[in-house]
Batch of 3 targets.
Target 1
Amino acid sequence: MNTLYLVCGGLALALFVYLVIALFFPEKF
């Protein structure tokens, strides 16, 4: 369960970072 929690947390964090980068640097997408 702990491993699943870490994986889900990592995916959520990666998605959040991707959205922030896409918001501030739209010319790269």
Target 2
Amino acid sequence: MQTITLQDQTYEVLREMIIKLDLYPGQKISESHLIDLLEVGRTPIRESLKRLKKQNLIFTFPQSGTYVSRIDMSRALQARFIRECVEKEVMTELCGVMDEKSEKMLWKILDRQRETFKNNNVSDYFDVDNEFHLVSPPRKLGTLVP
């Protein structure tokens, strides 16, 4: 069994906060604030910030501070296009092997996803989207990949 370190947990929480816009694009962030917010030590925060910088999710201006990266709309649109293409293909393949119970569950999740989108609830939208991917039958998906 793989142990998840405090640094990994801290990184995942910060990454999720950025993706869900709890830390918004352009927001200045400080180590001391994050230490207080997440109730962890300086080392997990620093290591997490290094990882986030490598992913271009945050950036640092010397003598100014660390900030959440702004959203690059061109990259976001490209990523959305790729995701839509892949997900459509996967769902087309899954429709042929998915049982009725799984299909009903996916439709319920899609309805909840539409509702969270309509209510402009970004955080819940991502949670429901992740739930959708967890409910999709992965063992059957593995049979689709040559």
Target 3
Amino acid sequence: GVGSRGVFVYGSSAVLGSGATTAQRTDNGVSYFLPKNLGGWFGQVHVAAGEGVVGNKYTGGRLGFENNTFLVGGAIGQTDVGSTQPKFKNYNLLFNYKSPWGTLHTLVDVKKWGPRKAQELSIGATVPVTQAGSFRVGYTTVNRSGG
């Protein structure tokens, strides 16, 4: 939507020209999620077969911890974009702080493909204003390099 950091994450330039089709979703993927009874720990491993389509073969995972005050986590993934090309890689770290006034959101996201690299920093907040609504604000900056 308007003002969404998704324009950086899901737009055509998000995969740095690599041809990866996995920035938003994968086809024919399988995931394993850690059980919910691990005292706040969460995680996922995901693989998707390429099925002969360049840019569809994906492997990745995420791990994190959440309690009443904060959520911290990280993820890493890579997409095979052809036998003669380097893999498209994406990794990120997030930290959310929950307080009585609302939640502070932070995310550092890095995408790499050969010499091309995008480093994104997102900072935002969600502040409840009524029982049914909240005020959201966010800022994202991207530093791209390598062509």
